[in-house]
Amino acid sequence: MKPVGHIVSSGALGLAIYALKVEPAPAVSCFLVGWLVDLDHIFDWVNNLGLRRGILTLLNVYNIFPMETFAESKRDVTCVYLPFHSWEPIIGFWLLYAFYPMDPVIIGAFLGLTLHLALDQKVNGVKHLAYFFTYRMLNRFKTTALTIEP
Questions:
Q1: What angle do CA 58, 13, 111 make, to 5 degrees?
Q2: What is the CA angle 149-129-85, rounded to 5?
Q3: Which of 41, 55, 80, 133 gives a 20 to 30 Å CA spacing to 121?
């Protein structure tokens, strides 16, 4: 999903949390985590493309510096690590939350992260297990093991 979609969706969820809790902190944590989690893409772009092309790709994705060669840059990404884009910590958190009370700010953050990953899983055209870090690790983080061929 494009960054603007994550900003809008996590903003909407943050507003809903604020309306229900009448506390700004959980809403803000939901909103911020809901789109800032994408910062782990920077590591992958720089790792695969080098510092200059990685930063140019980041600027292109956020429409700060559009370039026509983005598709080429995307093809050059052969390994995807994305440490924050993983279901394992989310599942672990919600299992812990079922048994232990948690700070509302942390709950808001994990709601934002859960929404982010659910939307990415639905929209990005990847295999079902692609957002499990363990699956990516077992496949040596190769992009070809994660994507569904058109």
A1: 80
A2: 100
A3: 55
Number of domains composing the chain? 1
What confidence tens digit (pLDDT) does each residue in 100-115 have?
999 999 999 999 999 9
Distance CA 4, CA 91 (A): 26
Of 27, 23, 3, the closest CA to residue 13 belongs to 27
User: Cα(55)–Cα(13) distance, rounded to whole angstroms?
Assistant: 29
Domain membership of residue 52 (yes or no) is: no
How confident is the model at residue 96, as a pLDDT?
95
Say whether pTM exceeds 0.70: yes
7 phi/psi in degrees, rounded to 5: -65, -45
Classify residue 34: in a domain, yes or no: yes
Q: Please report whether residue 132 resides in a domain.
A: yes
Answer yes or no: is 58 within a domain.
Answer: no
Instruction: Look at residue 3 in the predicted model and tell me its pLDDT.
Output: 84
